[in-house]
Design brief:
α3 runs parallel beside α5. The two termini are about 10 Å apart. This protein is globular. With about 190 residues, it is mainly α. Helices cover about 55% and strands about 5% of the residues.
């Protein structure tokens, strides 16, 4: 739970799903707060990934899903998709944390605009067949829930990598960045500290 997601307006399912997706994106962004490029590209944990690599992956992954949802991918080529997936974890020399954060913000705007433009979350798209899934017709609701799940998993992964760099945990970064004010822990008793 690193941040509280405000309740949606009654009946605004899109707003609720987009708010939860944005909350998870925030976890990825906060994990990079205050780090140097070198720290962001470091691989300090048992994982082979860096925070910059996770940022690139979630940004390019969400954009890829949006292309699929909008039917802009054309014929699906699994081999090409896997190459893109693997490359997506490794920022190139010209891809800085700042440029990747800008990309992620742009992708978030594109996703929000596409979701808001839908007639209904029941609208469908064709998910490609892959070795672990038969694919087929899926709703945009399914896709948004999948994106939330994926980004949440990577946000947790980012938390571990960040703690391995400098010991800062998710709540430290939530309070440090102002994403949420630190509560008055004393109001909840001596054992309430995070």
């Amino acid at each position: 739970m690193p941040v509280v997601v405000k309740s949606e307006a009654p009946g605004d399912e899109r707003g609720a799903l987009l708010a939860y997706l944005e909350a998870q994106r925030g976890g990825i962004r906060r994990a990079l707060h205050g780090l140097t490029e070198e720290q962001a590209r470091s691989v300090p944990s048992a994982s082979a990934l860096s925070l910059a690599g996770l940022l690139k992956h979630v940004a390019t992954g969400e954009r890829g899903w949006l292309r699929t949802l909008q039917g802009r991918d054309g014929k699906f080529d699994f081999t090409e998709a896997m190459k893109g997936w693997e490359d997506g974890f490794h920022p190139g020399e010209g891809e800085t944390v700042e440029s990747l954060l800008d990309l992620y913000a742009q992708v978030a705007r594109e996703t929000e605009a596409a979701v808001r433009a839908l007639g209904s979350l029941d609208e469908t798209f064709d998910a490609p067949k892959v070795p672990w899934d038969e694919g087929g017709k899926r709703s945009w609701r399914w896709a948004l829930l999948h994106l939330i799940e994926e980004v949440a998993r990577h946000a947790g992964h980012a938390d571990i990598i960040r703690e391995s760099i400098d010991g800062k945990g998710a709540f430290d970064l939530v309070f440090e960045t102002g994403a949420m004010p630190e509560p008055d822990w004393s109001a909840f008793g001596p054992d309430a500290q995070r």
